[in-house]
Amino acid sequence: MAERTPTQTPATVASPDPAAPPPRRRRRMKDLRKQPGFDTMAWFCLFCLYAPIAVLVVFSFNDNRSVVRWTEFSLRWYRAAFENDGIRHATWISLQVAFVAMVFATTFATMAALATTRVRAFKGQTLTYAVINQPLMVPEIVTAVSTLAFFVLIKQVTGLNGIGFLMLAHTVFCIPFAYMPIRARLEDMNLTLEQAAADLYGTPFQVFRTVTLPLMAPGIVAGAMLAFVVSLDDVIITLLVGGPGETTLPVYIFGQIRRGITPEINAVSTVLLGLSALLVSIFFLIGNKRK
Amino acid sequence: MTDVTPQTATDARLAEARRQTMGAARRRRWQLLSPALLIIGLFGLFPLTITLVYSFLSPGSYGGVRWEFSTDAYVQFLFDRDIFDDTLSFSATYLNIFARSIGLALGATIGSLIIGFPTAYFIASKPANQRNLWLFLITLPFWVNLLIRTYAILLIIRDEGIINLSLIWTGLIDQPIGILYTDTAIFIGLIYSYLPFMVLPLYASLEKLDFRLVEAAYDLYASRLQVLRHVIVPMAKPGIVAGCILVFIPALGAYITPDLLGGGKQLMIGNLIALQFGGSRNWPFGAAAALILMVVVMVSLTVYVRYSGKEGNGRG
Amino acid sequence: MTQKRTMAATLAAAVTLAGTAWGEGELNIYNWGNYTNPELIEKFEKEFDVKVNLDDYDSNEIMLAKVREGSSGYDIVVPSGYTVPIMIEQDLLAEVKPNEMENFGNVDPRWVDVYWDPGRNYTVPWLWGTTAFTVDTEVYDGDINTLALMFEPPQELSGRINMLNDMPEVINAALRYRGYERCNSNTDELRDVTELLMNAKQHWRTMDYATIEKLTSNDVDLSQTWNGAAMRAREQRPTLQYAYPKEGFAGWMDNAAVLKDAPNMENAKSFMNFMMAPENAALNSNFARYASGISGSEEFMIEELLDAPEIIIPEGAPEPDFVEPCAQEVTDLYNRIWTKLKQ
Question: What is the pTM of this model?
Fold first, then answer.
């Protein structure tokens, strides 16, 4: 085990945050963690990420029809968006598809990551990586055109149709996005803990649930979030694969480009942002209370 | 590489046990892999096969393909059948488009790494119960559709946008600096679009960083830079590899951002390919260009992963 | 692995479950984005007691790619004129004989014998318009009715121009400017046009479909655009004026058509007839700011449309040029010019 450093004992892997060290030491630790300029860069990054979002939120309250020029404050686009069946429907479809794609893609990716990391090199390993990451490599339009051809074939043979096909297509291209962070997490993480648990007569399932899964959790969370946003942003594949009544929000917006995008979209985006922020705050509060 | 080499008696015993269960392990591995492989194999590789087939056919009238074998699509990529006298001559048109796109994607990857690494590190060094919240803060802006986010960036960097107005107001400049509709704007837009693809994998591997190692390094009189180079970065390597892949490849195929922020006067690979399936009605060429792009990506990935792997081994 | 099996079962269930009721009492329309008045849909739903699903596309090519494969589930599509013959040739449209329908008498005779569907056996007019350009008359106060403003612009417009990111529109405009035929494969003429475009490109700031945003944000002072979009832009930037270039400009018409494999054929036919009623056609005009091609719809139009300079083509302006689809060889030539231009 060339890379394994002697200090990396099972205990340190289990708790990267050493439990309650004496206060004085803790102070020193905190300083040691810092790298010059890193905090500034992180705050700068957050600022950059949110500056356009702030502009967008402000413009959602703009009275003007234009999405690029400010006139005066108004709630008219919120009302318009709320009354617009097309937008409401599209938003709902988007969320449904993204959620289903996220759940399946993350599950499959987690399983695949478990099978491909921390194992002896096996026959077909490189090929396996290539296959899992394949949806990343093909330009979207090409995937879209060929997936459409394939789905039509299936529809004609089986007589099935519906939004499941769209969800399936999204699941496929979300898998590599979920797989990468999970794999990055697992790689270089040694098996000592699992072996210890097995030595203590834990069944494979117990070992997985109480040891492996908690260790992987940050990777899984990161992967799931990526899968979700990737699905939420997709245009071309949805445009071609989606059936009647399956317009997602991005497709709806895309269709508006030539005839002018209305600020209703800003209003919907703001509502979505607010909703997700609310949801997550609730989860966060519940989670903290439980602890 | 990450396998456990028997070193102690316990390990030896374990290794023995593992040898016995090798068959079972192999079965389990394929069981775990099968859903992902099956679904991608079916819905990913089949389309790929279609693409390969299309690239060797002739364009159908008004889109689609005609079932006639032809290598024209590949010839067209490198050689220009002169518009005017029908002679074949080497043409760098498509190569230029590829080179430009690769350059921009590479720039965006490096840019996101420079911004994303400190951010991921910052999150990883937060108390455990706060980290998911920070992660969420990074992904929240991406609940807004790409097109809309891009419009918002456009509002900020245009001539009468916030950046220029505030620079003029502070007296630093008296004429707006033209950022919008330049390569700089594309570059900013690409980094913005793909930043979480860098931060999340980086975070996933930095999160397990054992800060005692950092402390140990300081005890051995390492400078902060040395700690960064010899302790933190090597530990984050898998995350760096994953992040760079996740930014580079989508950035290479991007075309909404480049079109909106770059002004659409120059084609990127993504536009070129999409155009073939749209207005140009030359599906075989689109398929061929897509395959060439894939080969470029695969080759650079192999080189990249092998190179970064080697470095990892060398250090150990 | 029970886990895996459950997963597969769930996925299969999701696919099956979604066999949503396409069948009786529905109509699935596939149209350009932001191009269908929601009031029109509501009215049709009420009158015929059907549920309408409306989805959007952003180009004829995307619609064609999707519909060509079959089993798209859509009943009504709205292809532009030049796409209609392609769809008829590929046997994608149902010959529903709008010309025998009750409301056919309302169709303006001008739009009956059109090249894309002589006698109207397949399609009914949706909306029609022109593609030229609009320019801020405060920035440029000379004669605006010439394509020279796009291809050899005066000083004050140089670097302030947006062109459509659209191969046929840009190349056809250049051909008109030089006085050459459209769908041209004459090499000397194309060489000349290539040179013209390459020289003109330095004066262009952007090439983008989002013309309204480009104009209203003051990013550009001239934009190649459609007349309805020009009208929308003028509402926010009153100094804009839509040009009718003396060298000619493009005309287009989008047409409602029924797909051959339409699951709701009867509803689709009712919709075709419904669209030829003046009051319904006017609803679309009011929403999208284009003329409808249905006589008598003026009565129901909003006032801004009736005297809009973007809609009423002035005396002395050339006839709008409805370009037929070019042969593949010509498209290939256009392609190379376009790629050269945009490399």
Answer: 0.85
